[in-house]
Amino acid sequence: QICLSLVKLLFYLAHSPLGSIVLLDFQPRQFVMVDGNLKVTDMDDASTEELSCKEDSDCTLDFPTKSFPLKCSLAGKCEGINEKKNLFNAYRYFFTYLLPHSAPPALRPLLSDILNATGDLQYGINETLRAFEKVLHLYKSGLYLQKRPLLLKDYISLKGFRTVEGEDYKCWPSYSHLGCLLSIHSAEEAAAICNSQLQCQSFIVTQHRTWTGRPLASFQSSWTDLIPDTNAVVYIKRSASSGERL
Length: 246
Description:
Layout: H1 2-14, E1 22-23, E2 31-34, E3 37-40, E4 46-47, E5 60-62, E6 67-69, H2 81-98, H3 108-119, H4 125-141, E7 155-163, E8 180-183, H5 187-195, E9 202-209, E10 215-220, E11 226-237, H6 238-241
Antiparallel strand pairs: 1-4, 2-3, 5-6, 7-11, 8-10, 9-10, 9-11
Helix pairs in contact: 1-2, 1-4, 3-4
Keywords: Kinase, Signal, Transferase
Organism: Elachura formosa
Signal peptide: 1-19
């Protein structure tokens, strides 16, 4: 969410009515999240000036660990230097820390492609935004889910119930520090996740949703202490419930 919001912001800066705008003091502390969108807190160090040049050798974009040769345009300006400077700063301050983590395994290669392409400035901001929107579409639609055996049949579902909230086993990347709370596309995906975790004996699908509209599911090591909840469905492994009275 943070990286996509940042890319949308940089897309606007690259195509602003004033021209391509560069953020000269590009640091994480210069941004805040407002209603799920990343915003710049200080525009004092923004500029529309692009580096003047006479030849291509005048257009080297230097960073502490990398340098990129750019083209000198017929107008005597280094082509795309503002856009590329913003994009590489996004890569080194945000993408490298946020993109490799927490995505479903099937989507990680796509995010790795974005990371590598922006780290080498193979993508401009237009291509970067399209790549992010493709990943978002796959994530929201569930198209990233690979065909696999249907596992939900191995669970008993009880509508209108959930277990008593409390500390349970933890997993990564959980939305709660008290247990294993993950976003899912469907109960079928939740069953696959539960089967992949040795501690998991049940999971609860709630009405709470993430910014992408995906429901949250709580994975638990037991299924005892059920209480009524009209907005929840608890799924219990048949193997865990065998011999017990529901």
